[in-house]
Amino acid sequence: MFLHTIGHNLWNRIISANFCRSYGTTSIYFRKALHAIGELRNDYIRPPSLETPTKIARNHRFDPYFKDYIGAIDGTHVRAGVTKDVEHAFRGRKAFTTQNVMAAVDFDLRFTYVLAGWEGSAHDVTVLADALTRERGLQVPPGKFYLVDARYGAKPGFLPPFRGVRYHLNEWGNKPVQNEMELFNLRHSSLRVTVERSFGSLKRRFKILDDAKHFFSFPVQVDIVIACCVLHN
After folding, report:
1. Measured between alpha carbons, how far is 114 from 232 in angstroms, rounded to an integer?
2. pTM of this prediction?
3. Burial profile 133-159: b = 16 or more Cβ within 10 angstroms, e = fewer
4. Alpha-carbon Rg of the chain, whole angstroms?
5. Fewer CB within 10 Å: C terminus or N terminus of the chain?
């Protein structure tokens, strides 16, 4: 019942009819399953290995230049159903209310850190700063780095691309690389796209992330994001 709900974005009354169970029963067991999967968070969303990633090792495009990079970080917006009094805080660059979800992924498309629940209007830099200062927050091991988008800026442990230079893969076409900065950006983009692919895969697999159910409280919506990431891994 739980997987049908999050995988197909079905209303509780439809789940009740499909499984011939009462509305109350399906609601109770949805919450129990959500809690149980949430308890597995630290078992399945784990920090990345400190070894050189397989995608980078012995690949002349990336090794040795990116051998100390353990993943990529980015944010995505997930629809949020919130009360009228806080809608303004959850309305950012989207036309609808969202929560800003930040994640780190390894180069095998696995989530290694997830922070959900920030308002849609929050800047990605603010969300990252929060992740770094939490008691069990994002950790960057000494000598290791994450690839990030330009909006995060350069800081210890985080490497963005060069600004003002072609970056996104769809900007290249058949045009050859012109200089060292373009070459760096091309390879940076080829690796960092991993996090975008992970978010895309997550939203395709779990349709509930496309639409906030207003009968779920916002804390439950946050827990649903985490549960989807656990199941994805």
Report:
1. 12
2. 0.92
3. eeeeebebeeeebbbbbeebeeeebbb
4. 19
5. N
Q: Give the H or E element holding residue 147.
A: strand 145-147
Residues 195, 71: Cα–Cα separation, whole Å:
8
Percent helix, strand, coil in the chain, to 5, is: 45, 15, 40
* In the block, residue with structure tokens 């805080």: 89
Tokens 């691309």, residue?
Answer: 161
Q: CA 82, CA 139: separation in Å to the nearest integer?
A: 31
pLDDT in tens for each of the 233 residues of the chain? 888 888 888 777 777 767 767 777 888 889 999 999 999 999 999 999 999 999 999 899 999 999 999 999 999 999 999 999 999 999 988 888 999 999 999 999 999 999 999 999 999 999 999 999 999 899 999 999 999 999 999 999 999 999 888 777 677 677 788 889 888 988 999 999 999 999 999 999 999 998 766 678 999 999 999 999 999 99
Q: What are residue 64's phi and psi, to 5 degrees?
A: -100, 5
